[in-house]
UniProtKB/TrEMBL annotation:
Residues 200-242, 252-287 form the Tyrosine-protein kinase ephrin type A/B receptor-like domain. It holds the Pfam family Ephrin_rec_like. This is Tyrosine-protein kinase ephrin type A/B receptor-like domain-containing protein. It comes from Triparma columacea.
Amino acid sequence: MDRLPALSVELELCGAGKVLVDAATTASLHDSESDCELCPENTFNADVGTSSALHNELSDCTVCPPGMPGSLDRKVCGVCIKGSGISTEVGASGGCEICKAGYFSDIEDSSPCQPCSPGAFITDDGVSASAHEKCEECNPGSHANALSGASDCNLCTIGKYQPSSSSTSCLDCDLGKYGETEGLTKCEECNPGSHANALSGASACNLCAIGKYQPSSSSTSCLDCDLGKYGETEGLTKCEECNPGSHANALSGASDCNLCTIGKYQPSSSSTSCLDCDLGKYGDTEGLTR
């Protein structure tokens, strides 16, 4: 049987910023590049893999000079990649850290992360540097809080709206309009036959009550039925005339008409009272027109 040719395979070295300190005691710790560990925070290893002797001890990671942070990849000192910055928290080592929620860094330097401007946000909390290279705008129908460094956007609440992006608050629905759901970019007009309350920020429209009407949209109140007219149901856009032989009460806002009583009559519509039968005439039933 022919022998297979021997394969010539070279062992790979850990790259810059990484070391592998296990002394070949466990094969499973030497079978993948992921076994190489990052140098400790605020240290670096610039060797790109020229010698195993430069990647087999933690001491191969050099402490960064004072005032110069260690990069996230531990390859250099003095520059933080985009999406990271110098930690300003008490007790921090001064190395580069991925920005926390609501903060970003769009340049490579050694400064702290900056807060998102009002109306913008970042939800990622120190997990992915690429998520912190720029802040996102809050969409129409939502807002961030009025302070910088927001971590999320909030939907406009019921009765409010926001047509623009990058907003820090929502607007009350205008008079005569309403918002019955969250996240609105505009409020709806109250239909004829209904009204919103007289204050802005209405969450619903109310039907005109019995004895009232409203012919227009976007109204904040309903009108009393005129003298001689009535409204017997809710939500009317116009009131009905009382027929001849009947009358509404003498006040506006009537809910029904009353038949003329015995001995009285009314030949006209839209009346507020009935007339006494003339001399020499009589009316022995209700609702007479003459």
